[in-house]
Each structure stands twice: as C-alpha cells, then as structure tokens.
Amino acid sequence: MNNNFENNMNETQFEDMRQQLNTLKKKLDAQEIVNDRLVRRSMRNEVNNITRRYYIIMAVSLLMIPYGYWCFVVLSHLSLAFWIGTSIFMLICGGATFYNCQKISDNDMMGRSLLEARKKVASAKKFEADWLKFGIPAVILWLSWFFYELYQNNSDATMEAFFWGGCIGAIIGAICGIKIHLKTQRQYQDIIDQIEDLTADQ
Amino acid sequence: MNALEKQFSQTVTEHKSTIYTVCYMFSQDADEVNDLFQEVLVNLWKGFEHFEHRSDIKTWIYRVALNTCISIDRKKKRAATDRLTMDINLFEDRDEDTKQVDMLHKRISKLQPFDRAIVLLWLENLSYEEIGQIVGITTKNVSVRLFRIREQLKQMSND
After folding, report:
1. Chain B window 99-128: which residues touch A at a Cβ cutoff of 8 Å?
2. Residue B45 belongs to a domain with what CATH number?
3. Are both B118 and B153 inside the same structural domain?
4. Residue B86 clears pLDDT 50, i.e. is over it
5. Residue B42's closest chain A neighbor by CA?
6. How far apart are alpha carbons A45 and B46 in whole angstroms?
C-alpha cells in the first residue's frame, strides 16, 4: 500500500527513521508507563476546561439577573426596563456561549478524523469572532442606555462618579475584548490555513 | 472498578507505547509529555463508552491522541499531574539508543503538526488508507503529502 513512498525508500534517511522508531518502541515496551493512579485520575476528570468555561459563563449570566436588580434598581435607582434589557442581554450572551461550546465539547470530538475535528474548532472560533459583530454594538447601546438612566435618576455628583467609573471600566473591557478577539482571529486563521494546506490536492 | 473501567485500563496498558510515542513527538520536554499523556487519557475515557468499534481500536487511539496533541493549548497552566511510571528520560539520557531516538524527535518536530502526524503514522507502518482515515484526507492526498514531507526532510538534512 505504501508504494509511492516506499519506491523512494532507498534513501537511508527514512530507513533510519523507521529504525529509530523501532528503538523507541522497544525502550517504551520495557517501561510500565501507565499506573493505576493515572488511569483512575483520568476517569474521574470528566469535566474538561471547555465544559467548565460554559458552566461558569452560564452561571454568571444567570446570577447577573438578581444581582442586576439589586445593583441597578435598588442601589442606583435605574428603571425596571433597563434591568429587564440587561437581563435579556446577559441571557443572550450565556445562550450564545453555550451554543458555541456545544459544537466542540461532545465526548466523541477527539475520536473524529484530524481534519473533521479541526473544522469544528475553526467553526467555533469563527462564531466567537462573528459574535463580536453583535456584541460590540450591543455593549455600546447598553452603555449609552446606562449613562442616560444614570443622568435621569441621580444627582450630578453621583452621576459624575458613575460616569468616570463606567468610562474606565468600558476602556479596560474594550482593551481586553480586542486582545481576545485578535488572538481568536489569529488562531482561526491558523486552523483555516492548515486545513487549506492539507486539502489543497484533494 | 466496574467492567468498563477495567476494559479501559486494559486498553490503555496495551497501547501505552503508541500513546506515549505520539505525545513524545509533540512535546519539548518530559513534563509536557506527562501533561499530554494525561490529557489524552482523559479524552480517551470520555470517548471510550461511545466508541462503536466501527474502526480498529488502534486507529481510534491514534485519532484521539493526535487530535489532543494538535489541539492542546500549551500555554495553559495545568493542575498538578501524576507522573508516568518510567525510569528513562528520553530528553536527558545520553546512551546510544536515546541519541538515535532524539535524532528522530528532532527531525519530526521540525514539521508542521499535520505533517508530523502523517509521517508518524507512516513510520508506524500504517497503510495509506488507514492514514487517510485517521487524518481525514484521500489516499492519493496521503501519497502527495508524504512525497512533500520527504522532500522537506531531505532539504532539512542538507541545510
């Protein structure tokens, strides 16, 4: 079956490589490598990082509903409509994260072909990047609404404190968001390049 | 241990060298091999119950091990891991056999991840068809890739 490559095998480099692999296998076969603790620990470790991540985001999104009521309505005297709007936005964020993580967290994902698994990862990265097209305008809209509500319902001194606090928070958030977005885009492009390179001759 | 856990433990023990070889070829040091090995075991266990024996168990193990090694985020800090039970260190030992193994590691680690996977599977004597099934490309494409890898390796040894 290995005809084409085998025909070129008179070059000793590749024979060497096979022999080196055999040497490695012999050395490994003489080792125990796997112990009981290691296997047991692997079987216990059912929740991976991705799953953990979407549980956390879902939990934060849900917690923001009662916390938002206390923070915005009780403490800052903002309107119920603003709290409802914020809660809907948080639920959409949580839902989108959950949907995206579902794509790459099924138990059999790693048992697929390398190409298929990479395509799934690329699709999740693309969704993450596309999400910002909705996320950034939504955050700008939310912040504008937030400041408007503050201006309507608070004194000038309180308003000023909230304004500067909000601005600093928004700038820090924007910097972090852009950094994460650029990193995700780079990873996405890298996966796409690998897939294109691999399938170029198909 | 229940029956499934026992079966898993036995499968891992039977294929320990295969799993270790893949992890070794995708690592820079013994700690990284340790982390990767453990991550592969976690992914194998997650899929073990759902494995339907449509393909050979070895093919499935290769898929999981290679997917894990290609996908893993190496910058992420990991929880303390249990050590592999080995009295050799392929990154530090200096005997003649280890030097040979190290030469192989150096050659393979210069390749891109997918090419690394393909050449490793070829070295393991898998047929083009089996390599194609694991990677997800056609048999013809495996042959083309291997030809390019060969040229690449030749070029590297000339440099």
Report:
1. 100-101, 103-104, 107, 112-114, 117, 119, 122-125, 127-128
2. 1.10.1740.10
3. yes
4. yes
5. A42
6. 9
Taking every pair of C-alpha atoms in chain A, what is the biggest distance, in angstroms?
Answer: 86
Highest mean pLDDT pick, A130-134, B16-20, B29-33, B41-45: B16-20
**Under 8 Å CB-to-CB from B128, ≥6 apart: which residues?**
A1, A2, B139, B142, B143
Which residues in chain B have Cβ-Cβ distances shorter than 8 Å to A19? 100
Residue B121 has pLDDT above 50, yes or no: yes
Helix-helix angle A36-44:B3-14, to 10 degrees: 120
ipTM for the predicted complex: 0.90
Burial group, residue A182, by CB count within 10 angstroms (0-12, 13-18, 19+): exposed
Is residue B30 domain-resident? Answer: yes
Query: What angle separates helix B30-48 from helix B57-71, to the nearest 10 degrees?
Result: 130
Q: Using one digit for the tens of pLDDT, what is the confidence trace for A41-70?
A: 888 765 566 667 677 888 888 899 999 999
